[in-house]
Amino acid sequence: MVDPIPADAFYDLTTVTDVAVSPGGDRVAFVADEFDAVEDERVSSLFVVPTDGSRDPHRLTRASEAGAPAWSPDGSKLGFLAARETDAEIRVTRDDGTADDEFATDDGDDGADDEPESQLWVFDLERGGDARQVTDRDDGVDEFDWAPDGERVVVAARDPTDEQREYLQQRREGGPIETERLQHKFDGNGWLDDVRTYLFVVDVERGESERLDDAYGGGAVDARTGLRPAWGAGDRIAFLSTRTERPDDSSVVDVYTVAPDGSDCRRLTDGDVMAHRLAWGSDGDRVAFTARQPDNWYVPSELYVGDPSAGTYESVSVGLDRTVGRSPPQWVNDGTLLALVGDEGRTRICRFSVDGSPERVFQHQSAGESLSDFDAAGGTLAFVTSLPGEGAHVYAMDAASVSAGPDDADPRTRLTTLNDDLVDAYPMPECQRVTFESGGESPASAGETEDGGATVEALAYYPPDFDQDDPDPRPLVLDIHGGPMAYDEPSFRFKDAYFTSRGYVVLKVNYRGSTSYGRAFCEVLKGEWGTVEVDDLQAGVDELVDRGWADADRLFPTGFSQGGVNTGYLVTRDDRWAAAAAEHGVYDYRSAFGTDDSHTWWEADFGLPWEDPDEYDDHSIVTDVGEVETPLLVTAGEADWRCPPTQAEQLYVSVRKQGVPAKLVVYPDEHHNVGDPDRAIHRLEELSGWFERFDPSSDGDE
Predict the structure, then answer these.
(1) Which residues of the chain have pLDDT under 70?
(2) How far apart are CA 191 and CA 641, in angstroms?
(3) Rounded mean pLDDT of the chain?
(4) I need a surface site. Which of 150, 412, 472, 678 has the fewest CB within 10 A?
(5) Kind of pairing, strands 550-560 and 580-583?
(6) 506 — phi, psi (to 5°)?
(7) Is-contact 269 275, C-beta < 8 A?
(8) Which domains does the chain have, with CATH numbers?
(9) What is the reported pTM?
(10) What's the pLDDT at 3?
(11) Which residues pair with 203 in a beta bridge?
(12) Which residues contact 678 (CB under 8 A, 6 or more apart)?
């Protein structure tokens, strides 16, 4: 047997995000996340590569983190966000007393902490040399976009009043948290304050700026969506904002536009959407955006096109019944857009017409691969293609090639070799789609079977030496996705390879409640957690046991976030599991309300706990915790405010109190993820160690 992948091979992993095509279509910028084993940290670097694949990617940034690359309209400059030591030119100018007061950092005691804030930097690719810092705000810059003239940018940045700045300084010195906000916290952002984020127009050369007073954000989901500024060719800036009567008690996110001088701010949408991605057409007359229903996140996101001058907008994805929007939509001409869509357990390209029906394109893409981080410009498309056994890489192709069918030559040019050494050094999994019938009532439009159940799909990952036609039963990791409004797709994941290299089969079920299979399939779970999705997970395991792929005595469910929730449901319903691991989940819904950052979601699904207490109790896991007999590992992030660590503590203590083997692992300072590489490695070792400890076929000691 080939040696299993060591957990510390995680340091050799590279992931890709933020793909950006140059206006001429001849270059692609992207961000690569690598891991420094010595400093034990994630390092994000900016690369540029020609789209014809004639040269290897060139690393532009070497000194610090980088993200969100965007090309100037003529392609001569590349802007990006980075938290670096202040540019020497700005330091010298500041000492001269001539720096722009509005964007200068105060060196006094009321300034920010010692860590640099994220600012806008720009590479001049014609002149060469290091990037030049454009902004220098105390609280940093969150987002930006180029003006059509390439001489200005619009940035989103916090702008506290003097009174608010005093409070922020008090907080940095350990003072009390004071708030009157309903949305008082948000995962990854911490305790929220009253400081508004505004749009500023900045002169790239001089650094001078002007605040657009009517262009600001706010509300319950502002920390998630941001303002997403987009500057169109018609010289208007589109952005997102929540301005309902009670912004902190609403998931509405409207689209607004404003003139670059701050005048003539208009709302495009009517408070009926939660918008999140914006893209102007080439003429600047129309803006496309993706949006979901604000009070029902189970309904697929749609693609809209709006005319700000007329104040009208309409969906161009009607009839598709699939979730649109894992990357911003891309205009390919004045009447046509391309966008990524979740479609039956994979991400693919669809074409949308402002005057016609949506169409699935690029049929050359196999069912065993998925796309992400999609961008288009200058007649060129670029995206990341991920395959379970081959890694994830950046590809480019001519925009016209979206018409390529399954029998056509592959029109893509591979631009990176980021994980080739890792893939070549260790055994990688194979992946197969598995379809099965599941019980439980479900609407006919959700794939209902004759007995009232549903047809459900899953992905099975297995070791390369596993023969699915003549199998020897293997231990099974039931790896449950979060969301629940999400989906698993065939892709390259270190965790999958880690377990399959140890002989496990990994099963990922797209249970009812998952996206990519249509509204009815997803919406059946709204307010009904702990029902049909648990049936589907159980049925998926039964399917692999019946096939002889999984050993019925060696079953290990686990999942993160909603996957942790579903793991909790499984161990309260059944004791068939050898061991289980519930990660970063919620288990007592009444106590989660108000202590997490999701009060609008709880209300949309279950009502309010003082009005509908039975709804909360009936679906909570702790109310059935007396049924747990499965050895249970419970993990949490100490600073996780999506699924607070107190939830993990309740579940752990409740199980341990009964004498059931249990272990609690809390990662200090971690949010709703496990970010540092040493902790990601620790997490894998904890999971595999827990499963091995209670595996009846191992020598582990209980």
Answers:
(1) 1, 93-113, 440-452, 699-702
(2) 10
(3) 93
(4) 472
(5) parallel
(6) -110, 125
(7) yes
(8) 428-557 (3.40.50.1820), 561-697 (3.40.50.1820)
(9) 0.94
(10) 86
(11) 152
(12) 40
